[in-house]
Write a structure and sequence with these properties.
- The chain has 188 residues and is an alpha+beta fold.
- It has two domains: 93 residues, no CATH class; 85 residues, no CATH class.
- The chain contains three helices and twelve strands; from the N terminus they run E-E-E-E-E-E-E-E-H-H-E-E-E-E-H.
């Protein structure tokens, strides 16, 4: 059992006991689940995994919530062994503006990630891009899968975005060539 204390108004947390109500609920690694699910004024936030010692935010939650220090806990968890875990709002609460504006735009997300990476000090760094698109095509009622793989490794690239676009284009053109070869093969 975990002692749960909700300090903020509108916040609630509920323990999912080890193994769940029927004692055989397991996570993706095959271990029994033991989680604390958290709800706030905006809805469901996610859960604290007592086995992994981490907070997993639900994808649809726009509140940046997780493990905090002594500064502003909204929920306190105390384990059987006396360990105290403090959960609360991180980084001012909401996701950064770029994250909410670009949820459905993968190109913008990629540009933002590249800008963040370029802002890091990475003297002598090496960028490796591996792309392996695959595609299912139907020929004479049968499913056939084609795949193209390409890997490029460059030290200190000057323009990561252009590098990625070139590698992606090469992989897609390779995939198109493989599809043409398969379709023109008399065997199929």
């Amino acid at each position: 059992m975990v002692n749960i204390e909700c300090l903020g108004q509108g916040y609630a947390a509920k323990e999912w006991p080890e193994g769940g109500p029927n004692k055989d609920e397991i996570d993706e690694k095959g271990k029994p689940k033991h989680r604390i699910y958290v709800v706030g004024p905006e809805g469901e936030y996610g859960y604290y995994d007592l086995k992994q010692h981490s907070f997993k935010r639900f994808p649809k939650c726009e509140v940046d919530f997780g493990i905090v220090g002594d500064e502003s806990p909204l929920i306190l968890l105390e384990t059987k062994r006396g360990k105290i875990i403090q959960l609360g709002i991180l980084n001012g609460g909401l996701e950064p503006p770029n994250a909410t504006q670009n949820k459905d735009n993968s190109h913008d997300k990629l540009k933002n990630a590249i800008q963040r990476f370029e802002g890091l000090k990475h003297e002598g760094s090496k960028i490796e891009i591996n792309i392996g698109p695959s595609k299912e095509i139907k020929l004479n009622g049968r499913s056939n899968w084609i795949k193209a793989n390409i890997s490029v490794s460059i030290e200190n690239p000057s323009d990561i975005e252009t590098l990625y676009e070139c590698v992606s284009d090469m992989a897609n053109y390779m995939l198109e060539i493989e599809e043409q070869r398969l379709r023109s093969n008399k065997k199929y």
